[in-house]
Design a protein that fits this description.
The complex is a heterodimer of chains A (about 425) and B (about 140). Chain A is built from 18 helices and 20 strands. With about 425 residues, chain A is of the alpha/beta class. In chain A, the strands form five sheets. Chain A has a nine-stranded mixed sheet, covered by helices on one side. Chain B is of the alpha/beta class and about 140 residues long. The chains are: A alpha/beta (about 425), B alpha/beta (about 140). The complex binds iron/sulfur cluster.
Chain lengths: ~425, ~140
C-alpha cells in the first residue's frame, strides 16, 4: 500500500459539504484519525475494508467480474444505470458515455429527492449562493424541512450559524437568526428555540401562501393550528433579512410542495428581501451528477438514450425513466448500480424487483442489494482510495485527493474497462 | 389466564409515520449495515408518550408496524419532548422503514417518506425483523 504525500488537509466525502479541513493521522499504512471530521465523516474515512468481487455470490477476481458485467450489459436490450451520487465527476462522465454506448436509461437518487430544486437552480430559476457567502453575509437562516445536525453535521459550525464572517463579526447570538420549519422537532430545530415552527405534514405550500399574504399586509390564513401572530412574526423576520438563506431539506421535497410553489414563494419574498436557496443534497456528489447529465442532455436525471434509425442518439426524459418507475414497471432487462444501495434507500416493494433482473453492483462497501446481485465489482472508495472532482452542496467544485492507494480500481476505471470489453 | 391471553389478537392502532435521518445511524451504516449497532439504531419506531399509554403499548417492547406494502417488527421508543406529536410516529430512514414505505399516487415520483399510513400493535414475543429477512 502506498501512502500519498498529502497537503496538510484532506477532503471528507461523507456528505455534500465536502469539508476540506480534515487532518489525517496515519498508523503505519492505516488511517488512524480524521481530525475535524464529524462522526459520520470519521466512519466514512476510516472504515475502509478490503472486500472481494463476486459472481453469483462466489468470490472472483475483479477482471472476471468486469468481464461478466460487460457481457450482461452488451446483451441487454433495455439496460438501466442507477446511482453515481457517491462517485467522482470523472466517473459520472464515463457512466454517461456507457449509457450512450449501450442505449441505457440513466438515473440517480435525486430522482426521488432534490432533483427538481437542483434543476431549477441550474436553470437560474432559483436564486442561490455559496457556503462562503452564507458564512460571510447571512443574517437569517431558514432550515425548511432540513435537519443539518443529522444530515450535514458541520454545516452550522463551519458555514451557517456559528462562524464569524466578513459582515457577521459579532457572533451567532447577536448576528444571526436561525429558523426551523418542520413536521417534527429535530436536533436542528432545538437550536432555533422560539423560531421553530412545527407544521403538519404536507402543509409547507399552505404556509408559503400564508406568508406571501402576510408579506403584502394581508391577514395570513392556514387550516392548521398556529397562532396568526407567529406567522406575522416569521414574515417580519424574513422581510427584514439583509441576506437570507433557505436550506431546503428533504422534508420540503417530500412534502410534495411543487417546485412552482417554491419558486413563486422565493420570488414574492425577494420583492421585499434578499433570499437565497441551497438544496440539502445528501450524497457527496449528487449535484455533480445532476450538473454532468444536465450539461450533456439538458436534464438533471431520468434520461434514456435511444439510437434512432439514422444511428444518432435521441434523448428521452420523463417520469417513466425514473428508477422507481422503471423498476416498478419491470422495464429494464439488466441493471447496473454504482455506489448506492436501493434496499437501504428506496421502498422495498420496488427494490425487490431487482431480484427478477440481472443486477450488477459497483461498490467499495458491503451493501444489502449485493445479496441479490449477480455480479459485484469492488471499487476503491472515492475521495479516500482514489481522487477526482466533486460538486459541493452549493455548486462549488472541490478536488478530492486520495489519502491511501489500496491498489483497488476506482469506479471511473472500472466503467472504462467495461466499455473496452463491450 | 396467560396462556389464554396469548391466543387473543392484540389490537391494532392507526398511526402516521414520518421518516427522518439520524447521524449516529448514518455513522453506523458506514461501518456495517449488518451490525447490531446499525440494527439497534434503525429498527425502531418513536411514539408520543400519550399515544403509547392510550394504545396500551410498552416502551422497549417490540411492535409490529404494518402498511399496505409490508410489515416489520421493530422496537418501541418514546421521545422525551415538550412538543406533543400525537397520531404521528417517527422512524429513521432505513431498510426497516423502507420495507413499509409505499410509492405515492401522485406524479412527483417521490415515495411517502413523510406521510406513511400504518397500523401498530404489540408484537407479543416476536423478535425484531432481521436485515436478512428484509432482503429475502
Ligand atoms: S459534515 Fe459531511 S463532509 Fe463534513 S466531516 Fe461530516 S460527513 Fe464529512
Amino acid at each position: 500500500m502506498v501512502i500519498f504525500l498529502r497537503n496538510k488537509y484532506s477532503v471528507c466525502p461523507g456528505c455534500s459539504l465536502l469539508c476540506d479541513d480534515i487532518e489525517i493521522e496515519m498508523k503505519g499504512t492505516e488511517i488512524d484519525k480524521a481530525n475535524n471530521a464529524c462522526i459520520k465523516g470519521v466512519s466514512r474515512i476510516k472504515d475502509t475494508k478490503k472486500l472481494e468481487s463476486k459472481i453469483d455470490g462466489n468470490e472472483v477476481n475483479q477482471d472476471e467480474a468486469i468481464f461478466k458485467a460487460a457481457e450482461l450489459l452488451q446483451n441487454a436490450n433495455n439496460p438501466l444505470i442507477f446511482g453515481l451520487d457517491n462517485s467522482t465527476t470523472e466517473a459520472q462522465l464515463e457512466a454517461i458515455k456507457l449509457a450512450k454506448l449501450i442505449s441505457a436509461t440513466i438515473d440517480d437518487n435525486s430522482s426521488f429527492c432534490q432533483g427538481p430544486i437542483v434543476n431549477a437552480i441550474l436553470k437560474n430559476e432559483l436564486k442561490t449562493c455559496t457556503l462562503d457567502d452564507v458564512r460571510d453575509y447571512a443574517d437569517v437562516l431558514v432550515f425548511w424541512g432540513a435537519d443539518p445536525s443529522n444530515s450535514h453535521p458541520r454545516l452550522n459550525s463551519k458555514y451557517a450559524y456559528y462562524p464569524r464572517g466578513k459582515e457577521r463579526q459579532r457572533g451567532w447570538d447577536e448576528d444571526r437568526t436561525a429558523i426551523a420549519i418542520d413536521v417534527r422537532e429535530s436536533s436542528s430545530s432545538v437550536l432555533c428555540k422560539d423560531n421553530f415552527y412545527q407544521i403538519p405534514p404536507r402543509s409547507d405550500g399552505e404556509l408559503m401562501t400564508a406568508l406571501s399574504s402576510a408579506f403584502s399586509g394581508k391577514m395570513p390564513k392556514v387550516s392548521f393550528d398556529i397562532e396568526t401572530q407567529r406567522i406575522l412574526k416569521l414574515s417580519n423576520i424574513l422581510k427584514k433579512a439583509k441576506y437570507g438563506v433557505i436550506f431546503a431539506g428533504l422534508g420540503l421535497t417530500y412534502s410534495q410542495t411543487g417546485i412552482e410553489t417554491i419558486k413563486n414563494f422565493l420570488t414574492e419574498l425577494n420583492t421585499y428581501s434578499n433570499f437565497h436557496l441551497i438544496p440539502m443534497v445528501g450524497h457527496y456528489n449528487m449535484r455533480g451528477f445532476n450538473q454532468a447529465l444536465y450539461n450533456e442532455t439538458g436534464y438533471v436525471n431520468r434520461v434514456k438514450f435511444v439510437k434512432n434509425e439514422s444511428g444518432n442518439l435521441d434523448i428521452k426524459h420523463g417520469l417513466q425513466y425514473s428508477v422507481l418507475e422503471q423498476l416498478n414497471n419491470k422495464e429494464p432487462d439488466t441493471v447496473l448500480i454504482i455506489g448506492t444501495d436501493p434496499f437501504t434507500s428506496m421502498p422495498h416493494s420496488v427494490a425487490k424487483k431487482l431480484k427478477e433482473v440481472p443486477t450488477i453492483i459497483i461498490d467499495p462497501c458491503e451493501t444489502l442489494t449485493e445479496k441479490i446481485a449477480d455480479v459485484v465489482i469492488r471499487s476503491a472508495k472515492s475521495g479516500i482510495e482514489c481522487g477526482g472532482n466533486a460538486i459541493r452542496i452549493d455548486g462549488t467544485c472541490v478536488e478530492l485527493v486520495p489519502i491511501i492507494n489500496s491498489g483497488c480500481l476506482c469506479d471511473e476505471h472500472i466503467i472504462c474497462k467495461i466499455m473496452e470489453e463491450i | 389466564m396467560d396462556d389464554f391471553g396469548k391466543y387473543l389478537s392484540k389490537p391494532e392502532h392507526e398511526i402516521r409515520i414520518i421518516t427522518y435521518r439520524d447521524v449516529f445511524q448514518s455513522s453506523a451504516a458506514e461501518k456495517s449495515k449488518f451490525s447490531d449497532e446499525y440494527k439497534n439504531l434503525s429498527a425502531i419506531i418513536q411514539l408520543d408518550k400519550k399515544d403509547i399509554k392510550k394504545m396500551g403499548l410498552k416502551i422497549g417492547h417490540n411492535v409490529i408496524v404494518k402498511s399496505t406494502v409490508g410489515e416489520v417488527t421493530v422496537q418501541l421508543k418514546v421521545i422525551e419532548s415538550d412538543i406533543p406529536h400525537q397520531g404521528f410516529a417517527y422512524m429513521p430512514n432505513s431498510p426497516w422503514s423502507n420495507a413499509i414505505v409505499p410509492l405515492s399516487d401522485d406524479r412527483s415520483g417521490v415515495p411517502e417518506y413523510k406521510m406513511l399510513h400504518a397500523t401498530i400493535k404489540d408484537a407479543k414475543n416476536e423478535s425484531i425483523t432481521l436485515i436478512e429477512e428484509l432482503i429475502a
